[in-house]
Amino acid sequence: MLRISDVMTRDVFTLAASTPAETAAWELSVRGFTGAPVRDARGRLVGVLSRSDLADPERNPTGFEAKEVRDFMTPALFTLDASQSVACAARLMVREGIGRVVVMDRGEMVGIVTSSDLLGQLAGGDGVDLDSARAGARGARAGSAFAPI
């Protein structure tokens, strides 16, 4: 059985709840992430911020000015244990309509598993280099399976 620990990202980028929203949006964009866990001043996990949270007109009717991550984040975390199956993570993501699950071990965050991690595993397992796949898709010629629209 393939476990979450086999596909998760161990070095997790997190945001502080007090980070200016504009800075958080920039950080997510430059890093190519669609979201990140959020920590409070004591380092405790307090939520998740996604790009869709930042783009939500109900949460952001007036822009980012003078707002912080805590004003946009979803104050809930979906977590699973690193020893649980990849199938369990996939079921949770589908059921809850989420793109990432925080991976815990003995009460501490040890990683994160995203829908991209699961798709990468499905597409070819350990040998998949998603960065190369993305670059190939951008540079594909018309008529190929990855031709730009």
Query: Strand fraction band?
Result: 15-25%
Question: Considering DSSP H and I runs of 4 or more, what fraction of the residues is helical?
Answer: 25-40%
| SSE series | HEHEEHEHEEHH
Largest sheet: 3 strands, mixed
Low-confidence stretches: 127-149
Give Rg in angstroms: 17 Å
Shape: globular
List the helices and strands and how they pair.
Elements: H1 4-7, E1 15-16, H2 21-31, E2 35-39, E3 45-50, H3 51-55, E4 79-81, H4 86-96, E5 100-105, E6 108-114, H5 115-124, H6 130-138
Parallel strand pairs: 1-2, 4-5
Antiparallel strand pairs: 2-3, 5-6
How does this structure look, described?
This protein is an alpha/beta fold. The protein is built from 6 helices and 6 strands, in the order αβαββαβαββαα. It has helices at residues 4-7, 21-31, 51-55, 86-96, 115-124, 130-138, and strands spanning 15-16, 35-39, 45-50, 79-81, 100-105, 108-114. It has a 3-stranded mixed beta sheet with strand order 1-2-3. β2 (35-39) and β3 (45-50) form a beta hairpin. The protein is globular. The chain starts with a helix and ends in an 11-residue tail after the last helix. Residues 127-149 have low confidence and may be disordered.
Defining traits:
34% helix; 3-stranded mixed sheet; alpha/beta; single chain; 149 residues; disordered C terminus
